[in-house]
Design a protein that fits this description.
single chain, 8 strands, alpha/beta, 13 helices, 254 residues, six-stranded parallel β-sheet
C-alpha cells in the first residue's frame, strides 16, 4: 500500500490517504501508546481556514489530513495529483470497518458532542451492531472555558480512551481540540462533525452510492437547503483565489 503523500490544494495541505490507511495509522499510534490528530478538509473547512487563525493553527498540528470532499478530489485530479475516489475519507464510509476494529482490538472510544438524548441513541445504535464495543459519550453542550470543560477533561482521563471523537461541528470542535490537546491523555483524536447524529438517526444519511457518484453534497442540500445553501453555493466562491493559484502552479516543480 502506498504511503500517504502531503500536498497543497486550494490553499491548504492534505494527504493522499484512504480510509484503510487512516485506520492503520490510528491502530499503529494506539499500539505505540502515542497520541495523534487526524483532521479532515472539505470546502467548508477551507473557507474557515482562510478566515480563522485558530483553524490554521489546528491544521498545523494535524498528523494526518484526510480529504472529505468529492469536489476536492476532482480538483486534485484535474491538477494532476495521483488521487482517486478511494482518497475521499468520511465517517459514513469507514464506520463499519472502524467499529469492527474497535471491537476486535478492544479500543476504548470516547465521543464528545451532541445532546445527551442523541448520544444515548447513537451509543445504542452502535452497540446493536457491535455489542462488545467500548463506547463512552459526553454532551457537546458545555462551557469550553469553565468548570464544565475541566470536568470533561477529568472524565476523559478517567476513561483513558484510545480514540477520541470530537463531534461539535466546525470550527468549535477544532478550536476545542487546539485548546485542550496538551491536557489530554495520549489518544488518536478525530473531529467528526455530525457522525454520531447519523448513528442516532437524527441526521439525514445520504445513500452511500451518492458519494461514489459525486452527488452526496446535492443529496444533503436537498434534505436541508436552508442550512446548507450558503455552505454549498456561496462559500466555495471565496476559494477562487486559491484555485487560480493552484492553476498557476500546475506543472511547476514542488
Amino acid at each position: 500500500m502506498d504511503t500517504p503523500r502531503r500536498f497543497s490544494l486550494l490553499g491548504a495541505e492534505v494527504d493522499t490517504v484512504t480510509s484503510a490507511q487512516m485506520l492503520d495509522f490510528a491502530a499503529a499510534k494506539i499500539a505505540a501508546g502515542e497520541g495523534a490528530i487526524v483532521a479532515n478538509h472539505n470546502l467548508h473547512s477551507l473557507y474557515l481556514y482562510q478566515r480563522r487563525a485558530d483553524m490554521r493553527a489546528f491544521y498545523a498540528q494535524a498528523d494526518l489530513i484526510e480529504i472529505d470532499s468529492t469536489p476536492m478530489i476532482a480538483w486534485a485530479k484535474l491538477l494532476g495529483h495521483q488521487v482517486s475516489r478511494a482518497h475521499r475519507v468520511t465517517y459514513l464510509d469507514y464506520r463499519e470497518d472502524f467499529w469492527a476494529r474497535a471491537q476486535t482490538n478492544h479500543w476504548r472510544v470516547y465521543h464528545v458532542g451532541g445532546a445527551p438524548e442523541v448520544n444515548a441513541a447513537s451509543k445504542a445504535g452502535i452497540l446493536k451492531r457491535y455489542p462488545r464495543a467500548d463506547v463512552h459519550t459526553h454532551s457537546g453542550f458545555f462551557d469550553m472555558n469553565g468548570a464544565d470543560n475541566d470536568a470533561l477533561i477529568a472524565d476523559i482521563h478517567a476513561q483513558q480512551p484510545h480514540i477520541l471523537f470530537v463531534g461539535m461541528g466546525m470550527p468549535r470542535q477544532e478550536a476545542w481540540i487546539l485548546a485542550n490537546r496538551h491536557r489530554l491523555p495520549p489518544c488518536v483524536i478525530l473531529p467528526v462533525g455530525a457522525a454520531f447524529d447519523y448513528e442516532a438517526g437524527v441526521q439525514y444519511t445520504p445513500p452511500r452510492w451518492t458519494g461514489k457518484l459525486g452527488v452526496e453534497w446535492l443529496a444533503r442540500f436537498l434534505a436541508d437547503p436552508k442550512r446548507l445553501f450558503e455552505r454549498y453555493f456561496v462559500e466555495p466562491w471565496f476559494l477562487l483565489p486559491q484555485a487560480v493559484r493552484d492553476l498557476t502552479r500546475r506543472g511547476k516543480p514542488a
